[in-house]
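Retro notes (design track)

What went well: tokenization of the new backbones is finally stable.
What didn't: we kept losing track of which sequence belonged to which structure.
Fix going forward: every design gets posted as structure first, then sequence, in one message. First example under the new rule, 525 residues:
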């Protein structure tokens, strides 16, 4: 039915008949319910005992993961309010690389608490103001929990391990992977900060995850243009070309008549001379490894193979940019312009075959400014989840190193946040106090969920955590094998970057308050 208003006694239609409109409590209830449902979808993945989700799309493609951002992005979510919770996870992933499930779960429970307040006739604006005030208190509590010790390699390993514990890491332990992650991040640390973009992850199916290694350089899906070329070149001088190394063909479709065998031989000789000229020009340049974005004639490849030159043809533009960035080479568009000043450098370039795949490794020298975590695994699902886990660990280790601030994990920081908020709430007047206290109750969902996912009673665990926090100052749920104890996470190496916690609070609060303020949903069919 079309929406209408009367003007001068005549109806004026302002929306189409196909539009649907939901207002007031119905709109708020619908949005809150959608947000809570999304949060609930990832809640069981939280923590070291979190479970995985199997996601199957309409084409039968399967993804198995417990990464919050991946789960939410793979789900076919249409409700606009639910999409806002997905955006919380995306924002968390983009800014700090981890804590996506925590952020989504907190946002969902902030909505649940807001729903209870609305039913008690607390106005949405009051809830929003209370939530914002509580989030400021939460940020103060996070700062108070920051470890005073310097963030050294040992703490960085703990950060990486904490990030990966409970995720699919194949046959590798989170601890051993954390060492590789810290080594990679330290490799790209500069006076200007951490060049996180200089660390890439390359996956390759066909071996145990124990074969995962750190390559001081880059790895490309490329193969030599000729089988007789060397498989490895030491102390490589690298040319990157946008040049076709073969007989030039014009854009015009033309035919040439040959009347005698002498003319044919002359044409063949001219072609051979042109091809050999290209090959000799490359060989005489001094380059011993060539990457080109164009084709290489088989005769040119054969000649260069005889000269001991390693050539890769038809490389993609993105690969060419990576090679230039990693080796210091300059791309050349004409062979006659190639000179020694355009060469890049690497300690070694090697070509290796992995089943049906051929890879080029560019290692050391100038290339060592970029590092690659070369991830192995027996199946596609294993390497995909390993790639996600290592990517998150790289992000959080880089974040911790850049900020120099870490806080206790295992729910301890959330217990401290909730405790401080409740303490501060006593001094807040009016109904806003209810919203501030509700915020603290929502934060409790993190330790409650951690407890539930480890088989503990959530209420009993929460009571014990609060008591231990009051007496010891820090208390988290420490999982060791099948045992779960309450202890200081710092003493057990369970730590998170402070910025991960801050981002989770800020993004969850922003999404929840935005959804709570909506009291009118107009949807066009």
């Amino acid at each position: 039915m079309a929406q209408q208003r009367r003007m001068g006694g005549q109806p004026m239609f302002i929306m189409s008949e196909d539009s649907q409109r939901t207002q007031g409590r119905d709109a708020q209830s619908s949005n809150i319910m959608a947000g809570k449902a999304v949060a609930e979808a990832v809640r069981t993945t939280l923590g070291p005992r979190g479970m995985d989700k199997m996601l199957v799309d309409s084409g039968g493609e399967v993804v198995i993961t417990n990464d919050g951002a991946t789960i939410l992005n793979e789900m076919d979510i249409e409700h606009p309010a639910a999409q806002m919770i997905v955006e919380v996870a995306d924002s968390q992933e983009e800014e700090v690389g981890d804590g996506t499930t925590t952020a989504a779960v907190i946002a969902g429970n902030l909505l649940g608490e807001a729903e209870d307040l609305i039913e008690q006739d607390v106005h949405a604006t009051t809830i929003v103001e209370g939530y914002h005030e509580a989030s400021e208190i939460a940020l103060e509590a996070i700062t108070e929990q920051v470890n005073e010790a310097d963030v050294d390699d040992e703490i960085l390993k703990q950060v990486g391990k904490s990030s990966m514990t409970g995720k699919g890491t194949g046959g590798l332990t989170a601890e051993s992977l954390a060492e590789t992650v810290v080594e990679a991040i330290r490799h790209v640390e500069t006076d200007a900060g951490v060049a996180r973009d200089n660390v890439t992850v390359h996956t390759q199916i066909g071996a145990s995850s124990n074969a995962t290694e750190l390559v001081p350089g880059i790895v490309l899906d490329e193969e030599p243009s000729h089988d007789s070329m060397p498989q490895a070149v030491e102390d490589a001088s690298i040319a990157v070309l946008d040049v076709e190394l073969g007989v030039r063909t014009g854009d015009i479709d033309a035919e040439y008549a040959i009347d005698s065998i002498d003319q044919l031989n002359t044409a063949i000789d001219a072609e051979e001379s042109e091809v050999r000229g290209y090959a000799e020009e490359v060989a005489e340049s001094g380059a011993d490894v060539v990457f080109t974005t164009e084709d290489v004639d088989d005769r040119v490849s054969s000649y260069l193979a005889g000269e001991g030159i390693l050539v890769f043809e038809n490389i993609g533009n993105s690969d060419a940019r990576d090679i230039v960035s990693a080796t210091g080479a300059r791309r050349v568009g004409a062979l006659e312009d190639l000179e020694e000043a355009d060469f890049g450098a690497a300690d070694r370039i090697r070509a290796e075959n992995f089943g049906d795949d051929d890879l080029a490794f560019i290692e050391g020298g100038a290339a060592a400014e970029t590092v690659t975590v070369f991830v192995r695994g027996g199946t596609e699902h294993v390497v995909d989840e390993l790639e996600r886990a290592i990517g998150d660990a790289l992000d959080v280790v880089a974040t911790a190193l850049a900020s120099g601030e870490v806080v206790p994990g295992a729910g301890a920081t959330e217990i401290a946040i909730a405790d401080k908020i409740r303490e501060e709430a006593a001094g807040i007047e009016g109904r806003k106090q209810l919203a501030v206290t509700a915020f603290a109750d929502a934060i409790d969902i993190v330790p409650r969920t951690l407890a539930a996912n480890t088989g503990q009673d959530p209420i009993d665990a929460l009571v014990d955590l609060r008591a231990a926090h009051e007496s010891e100052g820090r208390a988290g749920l420490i999982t060791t094998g099948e045992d779960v104890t309450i202890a200081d996470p710092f003493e057990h190496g369970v730590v998170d970057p402070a910025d991960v916690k801050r981002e989770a609070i800020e993004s969850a609060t922003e999404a929840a308050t935005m959804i709570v303020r909506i009291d009118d949903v107009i949807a066009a069919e």
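Added context from the reviewer: Residues 261-285 form the longest helix (25 residues).
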